[in-house]
Amino acid sequence: MLCWCILLGLSVLALEGTIGYFAWKLEYGALAVTIVASVNGFTYLMNVIDKCCACACERDGCVLRVPECVLHLLSFAGGAPATALAMLIPCHKSAKTSYQDCFCVVACVLALVLVAGVAAIEIIYAEQCIPG
User: Fold this and answer.
1) d(CA 116, CA 38)
2) Of 25, 31, 16, which is closest to residue 129 (Cα–Cα)?
3) 9 or 95, which is more confident?
4) SS3 of 108, please?
5) Given CA atoms 17, 23, 29, 32 in this order, what sign does their dihedral have?
6) pTM (two decimals)
7) Per-residue confidence at 45, pLDDT binned at 50, 70, 90?
């Protein structure tokens, strides 16, 4: 299951890159790249913080954790690639199948939204290129 989640996260990253490419063509590229990078950086940071808190919880007793709904919301906001990366590098939530299942649903919905966004951007760009 984890492999599918990682592949899905990477495909969402490819879609985000496509959106960034079209946004660049529409003269909003720097803003698009900044937003995507910021959301993914913050999402990865929150996953790493939660992983550190989980390790501290096992060692010293329970401490404040980042709620899973916040992590899923960040994934849906565009941070799905960072969440997939966090499942690999610090192995965050790699054993919790309920989290992975929910992440896959979130990433699928995000992928559909991004595909619709790419299609809309392509239509807008095509209309701008038509003389008249």
Assistant:
1) 22
2) 25
3) 95
4) helix
5) negative
6) 0.72
7) very high
Report which of 121, 123, 103 is spatially closest to residue 111, judged by C-alpha positions.
103
Q: What's residue 11's pLDDT?
A: 64
Give Dmax (Cα) for the chain.
69
DSSP 8-state assignment for residue 94: S
Question: Which pair of structure tokens corresponds to residue 58?
Answer: 């096992």
Neighbours of 87 (CB within 10 A): 21
| Structure token pair of residue 25 | 């063509």
Are 32 and 23 within 8 A, CB to CB? yes
**Confidence class for position 104, pLDDT limits 50, 70, 90:** confident
Question: 């054993």: which residue's tokens?
Answer: 95
Q: Token digits for 3? A: 């492999």
Q: Report residue 73 as tokens.
A: 């919301």
